[in-house]
Amino acid sequence: DTEVTQTPKHLVMGMTNKKSLKCEQHMGHRAMYWYKQKAKKPPELMFVYSYEKLSINESVPSRFSPECPNSSLLNLHLHALQPEDSALYLCASSLDLSGGELFFGEGSRLTVL
Amino acid sequence: KNQVEQSPQSLIILEGKNCTLQCNYTVSPFSNLRWYKQDTGRGPVSLTIMTFSENTKSNGRYTATLDADTKQSSLHITASQLSDSASYICVVSAYGNNRLAFGKGNQVVVIP
Predict the structure, then answer these.
(1) How far off is chain A from B53, nearest CA to CA, in Å?
(2) Mean pLDDT for the stretch of residues B49-54
(3) What is the C-alpha to C-alpha distance for residues B31 and A98, in angstroms, rounded to an integer?
(4) Mean pLDDT across the stretch A20-47?
(5) Distance in angstroms (rounded) separating the CA atoms of residues B55 and B43
(6) Measuring CA to CA, which of A22, A24, A45, B103 is 20 to 30 A from B68?
(7) Which residues pair with A23 in a beta bridge?
(8) B14: buried, middle or exposed (CB in 10 Å: 19+, 13-18, 0-12)?
(9) Taking CB atoms and an 8 Å cutoff, what residues of chain A touch B37?
(10) Cβ contacts of A92 on chain B, cutoff 8 Å
């Protein structure tokens, strides 16, 4: 199994809603990532977890709250988002932080109204 | 300044033809370079990953080259197919830095 599974594939939410994006992998990877990608732009790193601990937070606004309940799961909790937060949110994983191959999920397309 | 520059920004090619995409980087110290294919609205899929000692690596009709001295890489697509229409992203990793450097991608459109 070389898949990173993200749910939901599409999400539409209002600015007052609370929702969560979920990511799961069963490759035994100990590093997991959240990226944000706007149209025709490269992915931008948001958070990195290593061995279930937050390793990198790229100064992401607090309305995005990551959570790593265990080594296979990564969540991104969303609250009070703005329309400009609409984007494709990509989860990725790698064996660890030593620079090996990065496996991406299919992404969650988020629209904030 | 972006540490990874890709050219051309976009490219239209006829089905069956070959094309070459370029990636220049300034990331240092170099660890590895990856090429990803990303279909519109989908997640990137890895094509190749190359370390300092590797000059060329193939994955089916995709062949990547790396010149670590000049800090250049290329991705050659042979006998293009309509399904090759996508964005091709060059990603470079530095030793001791967990943040990957992404290029802006080469947008390839294959037409019949």
Answers:
(1) 15
(2) 91
(3) 10
(4) 95
(5) 27
(6) A45
(7) A6, A74
(8) exposed
(9) none
(10) 43
B45–A106 C-beta distance less than 8 A? no
pLDDT at res. B38: 96
Using alpha carbons only, what angle is made at residue B69 by residues B79 and A100, rounded to the nearest 5 degrees? 70
Asked whether the CA dihedral B95, A3, A55, A7 is positive or negative, the reply is positive
Question: Does position B13 have pLDDT exceeding 80, yes or no?
Answer: yes
Can you give the pLDDT at residue B56?
96
Strands (E), chain B: 4-7, 10-14, 19-25, 30-38, 45-51, 56-59, 62-67, 72-77, 86-94, 101-102, 106-111
pLDDT for B1: 57
Task: List phi, psi (to 5°) of A84.
Answer: -70, -5
A107 in contact with B, Cβ within 8 Å? yes
Q: Which of A4, A6, A42 sits opposite B104 (nearest CB)?
A: A42
Taking residues B51-78, report their average pLDDT.
Answer: 95
Residues 6+ apart with CB under 8 A from B12: B109, B110, B111
- Based on DSSP, count helices (H) and strands (E) in chain A, helices before strands: 0, 11
